[in-house]
Amino acid sequence: MTNLEAGASIPAGQGRDNFGRIETRGIDMIPDVERKAKPYTLFSVFFGPQFGYGNMLFGALPIAFGLGWWAAFWSVTIGSAVGSLVFLGISPLSPKTGTNTQVSSGIAFGVRGRLLGSGITWFIAVGFFIILIYTSGQAVVDTFNRWFGTPTGLGALSIGMLAVLIITCVAAVLGHGTLEKGIRGINVVSIVILVMLLAVFASKFHVIQGGHYLLGSFWPTWFIATTTTASLPISWGPFVGDYGRYIPASAPSWKVSAYAVGGIFTGCWLAMTAAAFAATSFPAQAGDFVTGITAAAPVWFLFPLLLVPGLASNIASAAMSLYNATLDIGAWPFFYRFKRYIITAAFGLVLLGLTYLFVVATNFLTNLEAFVTIMIVTATPWMVIIGIEFVLSRGDIAPIDLHAFAIPGMHGKYWYQNGVNVLAFIAWLCGAGLGLLFSTNSLFTGPLESSVSGVDISWLVAGVAGGVIYLALRYAARGAVSPSGVRDADLADSVPGVPGIPGMDA
Q1: Measured between alpha carbons, how far apart are the two ends of the chain, in Å?
Q2: How far apart are CA 240 and CA 151, in angstroms?
Q3: d(C-alpha 148, C-alpha 141), whole Å
Q4: pTM above 0.85, yes or no
Q5: I want to staple 94 with a disulfide (CB 3.0 to 4.6 A). Which of 6, 83, 241, 296 is the partner?
Q6: Could you give the count of Cα atoms lying within 13 Å of 115 in the half-sphere of its Cβ?
Q7: 210, β-bridge pairs
Q8: pLDDT (tens digit per residue) in 63-110
């Protein structure tokens, strides 16, 4: 029995998703009877994890890039607001499809074209997992060094990262119910720690003026900082389906979007603003945020900092990243045969090795900046195109057809041309390509960046261009190119083991 079939073979109403127990569903369509989540769940899920060091770091980076306090504040505010808008179009999709965002992206990119989204989101999940595991390990090492004078070298860091990795893998293996309910508790303590952090660093805060800009002058540096802060909420967009798939299909789309946008904006803005606020007291170490805040904080405050932003929130974010990656990988052809917890454990070890490669052995800040640029330029047009197709579909979604890749002989509504919507791919390639032409960072500079005076508008160009081109191609080809194949209604009663269809599992 394959990984996908294992979830699909569970009778409707008998899927397990309790706190502390391994989730039995995968990317198979969640039956309506098991969808117990409410739209406000999305606010909760995307609020608390932002208060981990790995995410707060993005708020300290504008200070590290040489910006003053007010420039950094507006960079965080505008970046958080604009980046959160991607949730408007993509968050209501999974409640309608009952599956994750990557499989749901088939409505725009095709049943096989969903693999583009898998690649993009795996890249995001891996990148953030590395950042989160490293910063948690660093928090443990630096805190124990201040307490007991223990070493801070590679050996100590390795032990710290390995311990964090084990806990993260356990949480990711347990899955949705454990993560969702665990984050509720993290939300409460995160607010407490946020208030304490602002109170502790209030006496150290001062309105620094900035200077020594990363890219040589103010505006290019401000825009790359804003790109960096916007990347945090954007990076969470592909994960929203992991939790939205447990929301009933009857939930109003506007309400789902409102809670999702509200949760991601509020969490990102508060966490990054607090990080920038604290970083003004150690601007020279803002890029090494964990070490900087651990050195600047009073000794009594080290335990709360280690417990919540250093471990709890960071581990929650890392587990969500690993859960997303391995949940989706379970739908890839080669990995069908493996259970999700085996994939999770194996990839956890792979990612530990990648953490050493990209963090320990090379320049962390340079790698982070380049990762953010590539991630945001490729992910934004992908999500914009999916959002456009969802809006234009006006709720006419065929969830079962999205699983045609797992049903022998089935094509369905989203088969397009051999399982791929070429128009969506062309629009995405054009959007991402144009965005990279306008990109500027410490690793490479796009040939068109000089036309905007070195200001990085790459992700805005990518998102707008990808969306406009898709709309133009879609309407130009209207009637000439259309989804084809057998509809789910024709096969649902004849194909055994259709994922998650009530009545088919008995």
Answers
A1: 16
A2: 39
A3: 10
A4: yes
A5: 241
A6: 9
A7: 67
A8: 999 999 999 999 999 999 999 998 998 999 999 999 999 999 999 999
**Helix-helix angle 340-355:114-148, to 10 degrees:** 60
- Radius of gyration for the alpha carbons in the chain, expressed in angstroms and rounded: 22
8 Å CB contact between 217 and 1: no
Q: How many C-beta neighbours within 10 Å does residue 345 have? A: 16
* 445 strand-pairing partners: 440
For 115, 467, 476, 481, the CA distances from 473, given in Å and listed in that order, are 21, 10, 5, 10
Which portions of the chain are predicted below pLDDT 70? 1-9, 330-331, 333, 336-337, 360-369, 441-444, 449-454, 479-506
- The residue whose two tokens read 């259709």 is 498
Q: How many CB atoms lie within 10 A of CB 212?
A: 9
Tell me the two tokens of residue 350. Answer: 């792979």
Q: Which two tokens stand for residue 13?
A: 């109403």
- Asked if 499 and 31 touch (Cβ cutoff 8 Å), the reply is no
Determine how many CB atoms are found less than 10 A away from the CB of residue 1: 11
Phi, psi (deg, nearest 5) at residue 19? -60, 130
Which pLDDT belongs to residue 494?
A: 37
Query: Measured between alpha carbons, how far is 459 from 465 in angstroms, rounded to an integer?
Result: 10
For 22, other C-beta atoms within 10 Å of its C-beta total 15
Distance of CA 459 to the CA centre of its chain: 16
Q: Where are the alpha helices (DSSP H) in 330-440?
A: 340-355, 364-393, 422-437
Instruction: Give me the residue spans of the domains in the chain.
Output: 3-491
> Could you tell me the CA-to-CA distances from 440 to 91, 105, 222, 238, 372 in Å, in that order?
30, 29, 12, 24, 12
Helix (H, G, I), strand (E, B), or coil: what is residue 198? Answer: helix
Tell me how far apart the alpha carbons of residues 478 and 462 are, in angstroms, rounded to a whole number.
24
Hey, is 445 helix, strand or coil?
A: strand
In angstroms, the Cα distances linking 345 to 308, 323, 329 are: 24, 11, 13
- With contact defined as beta carbons under 8 Å apart, do 399 and 29 qualify? yes
The CATH architecture one would assign to domain 3-491 is Orthogonal Bundle (1.10)
Other CB atoms within 10 Å distance of the CB of residue 153 = 9
d(CA 368, CA 130): 10
How high is the mean pLDDT of the chain?
A: 87
- In the DSSP assignment, the letter for residue 402 is G
Residue 279 CA to residue 204 CA, distance in Å, equals 10
Give me 377's structure tokens: 């330029």
Amino acid at 76: V
